[in-house]
Design goal:
The complex is a heterodimer of chains A (about 450) and B (about 525). By secondary structure, chain A is α/β, with parallel strands linked by helices. Chain A has helices spanning about 45-55, 70-75, 90, 100-110, 200-210, 245, 260-270, 285-295, 320-335, 355-360, 370-375, 400-425, 430-435, 445-455, and strands at about 20-25, 80-85, 115-120, 135, 160, 180, 185, 215, 230-235, 250-255, 275-280, 300-305, 345, 365-370, 440. Helix content of chain A is about 30%, strand content about 15%. In chain A, strand 12 (about 300-305), helix 9 and strand 13 form a beta-alpha-beta unit. In chain A, helix 8 (about 285-295) runs parallel beside helix 9 (about 320-335) and helix 10 packs across helix 12. The longest helix of chain A is centred in the last third of the chain and has 26 residues, at about 400-425. Chain A is globular, with a radius of gyration of 24 Å. Chain B is an alpha/beta fold. Chain B has 2 domains: about 45-115, Alpha-Beta Plaits; about 170-515, TIM Barrel, CATH 3.20.20. Chain B has 17 helices and 17 strands. Chain B has helices spanning about 5-10, 15-20, 55-60, 95-100, 120-135, 210-220, 255-260, 290-295, 315-330, 345-355, 375-380, 385-395, 415-425, 430-435, 460-465, 470-495, 500; strands spanning about 45, 105-110, 160, 180, 190-195, 195-200, 225, 245-250, 265-270, 280, 305, 335-340, 360, 370, 405-410, 425-430, 510. In chain B, the strands form 5 sheets. Chain B has an 8-stranded parallel beta sheet with strand order 6-16-15-13-12-9-8-7. In chain B, strands 1-2 form a two-stranded antiparallel ribbon. The chains are: A alpha/beta (about 450), B alpha/beta (about 525). At the A-B interface, helix 2, strand 2, strand 3, helix 10 and helix 12 of A face strand 14, helix 11 and helix 12 of B. Strand 3 (about 115-120) of chain A pairs antiparallel with strand 14 of chain B, so a sheet runs across the interface. Bound molecules: iron/sulfur cluster (SF4) (3 copies).
C-alpha cells in the first residue's frame, strides 16, 4: 500500500476559559442548602469544575461556564432558584457571517482534531445565505471504497496547481510545472484587519506540518530553510524583491494582477523555470471578468480569486456571494474552452470544512483560508488587534507549539470532514469534485421544482 | 390474489413454540405530569413582599397557579407553567389586577428563549410536553404555536387553506386515520395501522430499555409499530412482537433468523437522513456490557456500521436481500429505508420493483443519536422536497398504489404529519417528537460520555433510572392521542374524510413565500 496522507495530531487544550453557550444564573439568597443539591448531580460536573476553577485562579472570573444546557439542575432545584441563560460573551463572538457557532466549532476542532459529532437532528434553519443554500448529494449504493469508514484512506484529496496540457504527451520535458498538494487548501495572507506578526512563524510551521502551502508577504523569511517548499511569496507591486536563491527553493509564487502580468510571469520563470505563478484577482464586478480574461492568456496558469472575508463581492452595493461568482467564472471558462488547463483557487468566506467542498463543487480547484486558523488560536474575531487595544484571547502571549498544534489540528479535522462528505457522495478524488454541480443540490432549484411548480412565483429572494 | 393465512400457517413451528403471550396496552389517556419538579414555564409569576395572604389570587386564577397549602403560613412557589401570561388581563380573572395589595407581577420567562432551536421552537417543545402530560391539545389560552417551528422553510412555510366552512360536515368519529401498509396484493398480511405514523428505529444502545419499551407499549395501544433500530432485539420486547419492526442495517448487528421470524415487518436500513452515506455510529462509551452482548461486539469500542451493505451493488442485489428475508419470514412485510439523494425517486421505484412493501424516505434533517455535525447540516435534501418527488415518480411509473410511501426526518407535530401526507406520503415515521414527549430538551448531548443527561438516550443505569416505563408509556399514549385529535380536526376543517384521501392534496395547501396564484 502506498503511503497515505496523514496529519499527526494531539489534543491541544485551550489556554483561556471555555466560553460556553449557556450559563446558569443562581439566585443564591433563597437557597435551602439541600443536602442533595442538584448541582452535585450535574452529569457534566460543571459546578464542581467551576468552583475548582475559581479557586485555582484566586479570583472570581465570572462566565466561566461551559454548561451543556440540559436544564436538569434548573428543573430539579427544590426552590426553583436556577435559571439558564445564553452567555452574552458567547453571543458577542464573531460577526454576522462568522457566527458564534462557527467560532465555537473551530475552537473545538483546533483542540481535538476530531470531527464534531453530536446527538439529535440538525438544529439550524432550513436553508440560509451563501453556502447554506446548497446541500451535497449522497449515493445510496455507489461507494468510493467498499468499507464505509474503514478504507477511507483510499479517497484522495490531492489537487495540482498549475497549467495542465489539453493533450497527452510522451515527452516529459514538455510538461509545465505542477505543484501537488495533499488537500485542496492553501493558507492565505493574513487579513489586514487582523495583523499579528507573531502568527506568521506559526503559520509557516503549520503549513509544513500538514504539507500544504502558506502565502506569505514578500518580506517574510522562514525560520527553517526547508520550509520554503511550504511557502509561497506574495509579490505586490510595492513589495521588495525576493532574493532569487530564496525564490528558487519555493514551488509557488503569487503576484498581484496588473497590466504586465505576462511579462512578470516570464521574468519569474526565467529565475526559476519550475515555479508555478498564481495571479491574485480581487472579486469585484470587474474582477470576475478579469479572471475570465486572464484564463485565456497563454502565460497564465493559476488564478487566485478572493472575495471579502465574508465571501462577498468587493465594492458592490448588492454583493454577490462567492458561490455565485465561482459558478459564473467556472461556467464562462468551460464555455470558452480550456477550463481544465488552468487552476482556480478561491478565497474569502471559507469558514467551515463544508465550504471547502462546496466551493470546489461550484468550480474552484482548491480554496484558501486565513481567519479559521486565527480562530484556532482562540481569536474571537473581535477585530480589535491594533496597538493599544486588548485582545480577549491574549494572542500576544501565544505559545509557539500551542499555535502550531491548534492550526495543525484544525487542518486535520477539515481534511477528515472533506473525506466524510466525499465518502457520502461516492467520490474518490477531490480533483473530480471540481465543478461537479451534479453532486450538489441548490436551494433555488429544489424550491422551484417542488414548490414553484405548485404555488406560483417565489416572492422571497 | 392469494388468501391471507393465519399465524399458525405462516410461522415456522419453532418460532411459534417460542412465542411469548402478547401484552395488551389500553389506549387510555391519564395525566402524566413532568418528572421534574419545576416545569419550564413561558411566563413567570412574581409575588412580592406586599402579599397579605388574603387568598384572592387563589380564588380568581382559572389555572390553579397560586397554591396555599393548608397548614402553611406562606404561599408556595407559584406554578408558573400553568400561567397563561399577560393576556390574562383580557379576562376578569387576572390575579395581577385583582390583588388588593398589588403584590403580583406576571412577565415572560427570560429562560424561555434559551429553550429550543429553529426546528424545535420553545413553543413546540412546551406544547408537546403539555400534550404528553394531558393527552389533549394545549388550551388556546396558552397560545402555543405547535403548528410550525422557526426554520424558515419547508413545513414551516406551508399552511393549509382552511375554508371558512368545511365543504362537507364530518363527525370526528367518521374520520378514518388508518393506513394500509401492504398495497402489493401479494398474499402477505394486509397490515393496517390506526394512525398514520409509527415509531422510528432507535437501537438499544442509543436509547435506554425504558425508552424502547415505552415506545413499544404506546405502539401496541395505538395499533401501530415501533422499530428496534440496528442494535438487535431485546428479549424484553417480545411481549410486543406483533408491533415491532426489526431492522437489518449495514452493520448487521444482532440480526438473527429467529428475531427476523418474530416480527410482522422487517426494515432494511440503507441510510439515515441525519448521516446519509455514513453508516450508524455508536460511540465507545455507550457500548456497555449489555449492548456489546446483544450486538455480539467487543465491549467499549466504538461501533461504526459500514456504508452501504457490502452485499448490495445494484437493485438486483437489493432484490436478493428482500427475497432472503421474505423466505426466512413468510409473513413479513418489507420496508426499505433510504435517505434523500437527488435520485431518491429512482431509488424508490427500484426498491418497489425489488419487492419492497414500504419505501421509507428519511430526510436530511432527521434525528439521530450521534452524527457528524457536517453531515446533519449538509448532506442530502430535506424531506419536504423528497416526498413530492418520489410520490410523483411512483405515480408516473404506474406503481403509486402498489407501494406505501413513508416519510421521516423532521416530523414534529400532527401538522407536519398532515403536510407530509398532503405532499404525497401515505404516512410518517416519528422519533424526536417521542423523545421530546419523554422530556428531551434537544440539548444534542445524546452521544457523549454517559449519554443523555435526562435519561432518555442513554444506557447508563443511573441515568436511565430517571424514567419509569409506565410514565413513559403514558406520555407517549397521551401525545399520540393529542396528535390524533389535531389530525382529525385538520381533516374535519378540510372536509376530507380520511388520511388516505388527503394523500397528495397539495391543492389544499399554500406556501407563504410564493404568490399562490
Ligand atoms: S443545565 Fe445541565 S449541564 Fe448545565 S449545569 Fe445544569 S445539570 Fe449541568
Ligand atoms: S391576592 Fe395578593 S395579597 Fe392576596 S394572597 Fe394573592 S398575592 Fe397575596
Ligand atoms: S441528550 Fe438532550 S437531545 Fe439527546 S435525547 Fe437527551 S435531552 Fe434529548
Amino acid at each position: 500500500m502506498p503511503e497515505k496522507y496523514h496529519i499527526k495530531t494531539k489534543p491541544v487544550p485551550p489556554r483561556r476559559p471555555r466560553i460556553g453557550k449557556h450559563g446558569v444564573v443562581d439566585w443564591r439568597e433563597d437557597c435551602a442548602r439541600c443536602h442533595n443539591c442538584v448541582k452535585k448531580a450535574c452529569v457534566y460536573d460543571r459546578y464542581r469544575q467551576e468552583a475548582d476553577y475559581i479557586r485555582s485562579m484566586g479570583e472570581v472570573e465570572a462566565l466561566f461556564f461551559d454548561c451543556m444546557g440540559c436544564f436538569s439542575c434548573v428543573q430539579d432545584c427544590t426552590k426553583g432558584l436556577l435559571r439558564l441563560s445564553i452567555n452574552p460573551e458567547y453571543e458577542r463572538l464573531g460577526n454576522r457571517y462568522w457566527k458564534p457557532d462557527i467560532i465555537k466549532t473551530t475552537w473545538l476542532q483546533a483542540e481535538t482534531a476530531k470531527i464534531p459529532v453530536s446527538g439529535a437532528g440538525y438544529r439550524g434553519p432550513f436553508s440560509g445565505h451563501g453556502f447554506d443554500a446548497m446541500w451535497t448529494d449522497m449515493s445510496e449504493i455507489v461507494r468510493p471504497t467498499r468499507d464505509g469508514i474503514h478504507g477511507r484512506e483510499y479517497i484522495s484529496t490531492s489537487v495540482d496547481i498549475g497549467r495542465k496540457l489539453p493533450f497527452l504527451t510522451q515527452n516529459g520535458n514538455q510538461l509545465p510545472p505542477l505543484v501537488s498538494l495533499p488537500m485542496p487548501l492553501i493558507i492565505d495572507l493574513s487579513s489586514p484587519a487582523h495583523t499579528l506578526p507573531q502568527v506568521d512563524p506559526i503559520v509557516e510551521h503549520a503549513a509544513a506540518a500538514t504539507g500544504i502551502i502558506a502565502l506569505m508577504d514578500a518580506r517574510y523569511r522562514p525560520a527553517k530553510a526547508e520550509h520554503l517548499t511550504n511557502i509561497a511569496f506574495y509579490l505586490s507591486p510595492d513589495s521588495p524583491a525576493v532574493p532569487d536563491e530564496l525564490l528558487r527553493k519555493t514551488r509557488l509564487v503569487e503576484i498581484a494582477d496588473g497590466p504586465a502580468v505576462a511579462e512578470r510571469i516570464q521574468a519569474l520563470k526565467r529565475i526559476h523555470p519550475e515555479i508555478v505563478v498564481a495571479i491574485r484577482v480581487e472579486l469585484t464586478n470587474a474582477g470576475i471578468g478579469r479572471a475570465i480574461e486572464l484564463a485565456g492568456l497563454p502565460d497564465v496558469e493559476t488564478i487566485h480569486v478572493v472575495a471579502d472575508a465574508n465571501g462577498d463581492e468587493l465594492n458592490a452595493s448588492q454583493p454577490r456571494f462567492l458561490k455565485e461568482m465561482l459558478r459564473q467564472i467556472h461556467t464562462a471558462l468551460i464555455e470558452k474552452g480550456g477550463r481544465d488547463e488552468i487552476t482556480l483557487m478561491a478565497g474569502g468566506g471559507i469558514a467551515l470544512p463544508e465550504h471547502m467542498a462546496k466551493a470546489i463543487i461550484c468550480g474552484a480547484d482548491l480554496v484558501t483560508i486565513n481567519l479559521p486558523l486565527l480562530i484556532a488560536l482562540e481569536c474571537h474575531l473581535c477585530a480589535s488587534c491594533k496597538p493599544g487595544t486588548t485582545c480577549p484571547a491574549k494572542l500576544e502571549n501565544i505559545d509557539f507549539s500551542f499555535g502550531v498544534g491548534r492550526m495543525t489540528n484544525l487542518i486535520a479535522a477539515w481534511h477528515d470532514q472533506l473525506i466524510e462528505l466525499m465518502g457520502a457522495m461516492g467520490m474518490r478524488e477531490a480533483r473530480r469534485l471540481r465543478g461537479d454541480v451534479g453532486r450538489a443540490m441548490f436551494f433555488e432549484q429544489l424550491e422551484e421544482e417542488t414548490f414553484g411548480k405548485l404555488y406560483g412565483t417565489r416572492t422571497k429572494p | 390474489m392469494a388468501p391471507e393465512r393465519s399465524l399458525e400457517q405462516l410461522l415456522p413451528e419453532k418460532t411459534l413454540k417460542t412465542r411469548v403471550p402478547q401484552e395488551h396496552v389500553e389506549r387510555l389517556v391519564r395525566p402524566a405530569p413532568s418528572r421534574y419538579r419545576n416545569e419550564i414555564a413561558k411566563y413567570l409569576v412574581h409575588r412580592g413582599p406586599e402579599c397579605k395572604r388574603c387568598g384572592k389570587c387563589g380564588e380568581v386564577c382559572a389555572h390553579e397557579v397560586h397554591v396555599h397549602l393548608p397548614g402553611y403560613k406562606y404561599y408556595g412557589e407559584p406554578r408558573h407553567h400553568l400561567c397563561i401570561g399577560p393576556s390574562c388581563e383580557n379576562t376578569d380573572r387576572y390575579c395581577v389586577a385583582q390583588c388588593p395589595n398589588g403584590a403580583l407581577q406576571v412577565r415572560e420567562n427570560p429562560m424561555y428563549s434559551v429553550l429550543g432551536d429553529c426546528r424545535w421552537s420553545s413553543d413546540l417543545i412546551l406544547a408537546t410536553w403539555k400534550m404528553a402530560e394531558t393527552g389533549d391539545v394545549p388550551p388556546a389560552a396558552y397560545d402555543y404555536n405547535y403548528e410550525t417551528g422557526n426554520s424558515g422553510g419547508g413545513f414551516d412555510k406551508l399552511r393549509f387553506k382552511f375554508p371558512k366552512e368545511p365543504p362537507v360536515k364530518l363527525d370526528a368519529s367518521e374520520i378514518d386515520t388508518t393506513v394500509l401498509l401492504n398495497k402489493r396484493g401479494d398474499g402477505r398480511p394486509k397490515i393496517k395501522i390506526d394512525v398514520p405514523w409509527y415509531g422510528g428505529g432507535m437501537s438499544f444502545g442509543s436509547v435506554s430499555n425504558v425508552t424502547q419499551l415505552s415506545k413499544a407499549r404506546a405502539a401496541v395501544a395505538f395499533n401501530t409499530f415501533t422499530c428496534t433500530g440496528e442494535g438487535g432485539y431485546m428479549e424484553r420486547m417480545r411481549p410486543y412482537d406483533d408491533h415491532v419492526i426489526t431492522q437489518v442495517a449495514t452493520g448487521l448487528f444482532g440480526v438473527r433468523e429467529e428475531t427476523i421470524q418474530r416480527v410482522p415487518i422487517v426494515e432494511f436500513k440503507y441510510a439515515q437522513g441525519a448521516k446519509p452515506g455514513l453508516g450508524g455510529h455508536l460511540l465507545g462509551d455507550k457500548n456497555t456490557i449489555a449492548v456489546s452482548r446483544m450486538r455480539e461486539a467487543v465491549l467499549g469500542i466504538s461501533l461504526f456500521s459500514p456504508f452501504p451493505f457490502h452485499s448490495v451493488y445494484s437493485i438486483e442485489d437489493h432484490m436478493k436481500h428482500i427475497d432472503w428475508i421474505k423466505h426466512v419470514n413468510r409473513r413479513a412485510l418489507i420496508s426499505t429505508k433510504v435517505s434523500t439523494p437527488t435520485d431518491v425517486d429512482m431509488v424508490a421505484v427500484g426498491s418497489y420493483s425489488a419487492g419492497t412493501h414500504i419505501v421509507h424516505i428519511d430526510g436530511g434533517y432527521g434525528g439521530t443519536g450521534a452524527a457528524p455535525d457536517i453531515a446533519k447540516k449538509n448532506i442530502a435534501m430535506p424531506i419536504e422536497y423528497a416526498i413530492g418527488k418520489v410520490h410523483q415518480f411512483l405515480a408516473a411509473e404506474g406503481v403509486r398504489d402498489k407501494v406505501t410511501l413513508i416519510a421521516s426526518g423532521g416530523i414534529r407535530s400532527a401538522y407536519d404529519v398532515a403536510k407530509a401526507i398532503a405532499l404525497g406520503a401515505d404516512g410518517v415515521v416519528i422519533g424526536t417528537s417521542e423523545m421530546v414527549a419523554l422530556g428531551c430538551v434537544r440539548c444534542s448531548r445524546c452521544e457523549s460520555g454517559r449519554g443523555c443527561p435526562r435519561g432518555i438516550a442513554t444506557t447508563d443505569p443511573e441515568l436511565a433510572a430517571k424514567m419509569e416505563i409506565d410514565w413513559g408509556t403514558q406520555r407517549l399514549i397521551n401525545m399520540y392521542s393529542a396528535w390524533r385529535k389535531v389530525l382529525v380536526g385538520i381533516l374535519q376543517r378540510l372536509g376530507v374524510p380520511s388520511v388516505a384521501e388527503l394523500r397528495g392534496r397539495t391543492d389544499l395547501m399554500m406556501h407563504l413565500d410564493y404568490t399562490n396564484s
